[in-house]
Amino acid sequence: MKVTALERAGQSLIMFLLLLMCISILYPFLYMLAISLNTGSDAARGGVYLWPRSFTWINYQIVLGNEVIRHAYLVTIGRTVAGTIGGLAVTLAAAYGLSYKWLPFRNGILTYILITMLFNGGLVPFYIQLFKLGLTNTFWVYIIPGLFSAWNMFVMLKFIQGIPEAMIESAELDGAGPVRILVQIIVPLSKPMLAALGLFTAVGHWNDWFSGAFFVTNQNLIPVQTFLQQLLSAQDLSAVLSSNQNQEALARGSTLNNITLLSVKMATVMISALPILAVYPFLQKYFVKGIMIGSVKG
Questions:
Q1: CATH number at residue 146
Q2: What proportions of the chain, in percent to the nearest 5, are helix, strand and coil?
Q3: Most buried of the four, 90, 153, 181, 273, by CB within 10 Å?
């Protein structure tokens, strides 16, 4: 089909706008990377935009040498893995059970779940509930409250309802029970949707700083994003220069004058962002496929 000059101009304009959007997204990331790899005193003079002018690893040595940050990463990784696996299991089980139209009180349960998407009791009642359950100041405050997501459940339910009933009926005629149908039919067919929901859930756990800031007072239980939030509001370097390894790093190759709070902040941001960015390319094909399936089924 012949493309007219107007259509080519429109495509060129779209490509130009997309390029500007990519640059606007990529540039802040490159700027933070350059600052984190530059000595703080040199970066403070300005002029560092896309690559470091005075290259150094000291900022990352300071960040990774902090015991609180290392422990915070372990907490974040643990909650992300456990929260994602647990959340997908609960979401899949709830959606699969509610997909049976003969389930007693099914409509009432769906209505009740829908109400929770529209209204909530607020932060104070939620905190009181967590306190009464003994979840505050524990690792499980990151896992249990987020196991069930009404939105994810409805998306998963819609997907399961789109699976041909003939497949499930034929399995039932062969003597398969609900558990076997779930394991051998529903789960294999739902991999793209589970990957998409799993990515959303994992990113939510990885980026969550709110729970650690309001529901946990023990510094050994805070996730890395909460520590980053505390660091971004700090006024000096005392929060990250106190460990013995940091003191050794300073004694080996750098002085305190070469380090600024901004450079350490940028290094912490990069370390907190890189893991989730590294995982995304491996799940991208499942993520896109799951979104496309959800849009078609919906």
A1: 1.10.3720.10
A2: 75, 0, 25
A3: 153
